[in-house]
Known about the structure:
The structure holds 2 protein chains of 2 kinds. Chain A is an all-beta fold. Chain A has strands spanning 5-7, 10-13, 19-24, 31-37, 43-50, 53-57, 65-68, 75-79, 88-95, 105-106, 110-114. In chain A, the strands form 2 sheets. In chain A, strands 2, 4, 5, 6, 9, 10 and 11 form a 7-stranded mixed β-sheet that branches. A 4-stranded antiparallel β-sheet of chain A has the order 1-3-8-7, with no helix packed on it. At the A-B interface, strand 4, strand 5 and strand 10 of A face strand 4, strand 5, strand 9 and strand 10 of B.
Amino acid sequence: GPKVLQIPSHQIIDMGQMVTLNCDPVSNHLYFYWYKQILGQQMEFLVNFYNGKVMEKSKLFKDQFSVERPDGSYFTLKIQPTALEDSAVYFCASSQGQGGSYEQYFGPGTRLTVL
Amino acid sequence: QQKVQQSPESLIVPEGGMASLNCTSSDRNVDYFWWYRQHSGKSPKMLMSIFSNGEKEEGRFTVHLNKASLHTSLHIRDSQPSDSALYLCAASKASNTNKVVFGTGTRLQVLP
Lengths: 115, 112
């Protein structure tokens, strides 16, 4: 089936540093998302992105967070500066169409550890 | 703020048994319900979706939806140890936003 790739699988950084999480969405998908999951529990929506713009973001999407997809390359989540509470698994997802009836396909996640 | 509540938090069933998981949305404007399965250390995979009142069956899995009560349930018959996972219910709307709200999850353990 369709695959979403994420790089790296695990990232360890010191608090205050910048980190960029990379996502390679399904090739014909146009809508992209980031989710945050702590300790294998609830999956929490961060942001969705279409046509170069943020469509919607949650309260978890702090000012230190930013997303972009320059020139159709990776869809990235940047955190600058990082905080201890940013430690989590971050999942990227993509979907083909607009509207809540389109399935979202998830990547394998990036485990971020902030020391 | 829209919430999706799942129960029970955890569930243990014997191999071959029936597992029943519940999910309710607090937002009356949701249109679609999804069930995802997430094995430990893996990404969520969509198991089943249901958009209309009633029942939908795929193999050992059956989902029910009651739109009036915004309640959906997932039933797994003849449960297998490989079904052991975190089951996430999610809800979304038929609007321009693609936002999906996930529930708190039910951790299922099937004992051999």
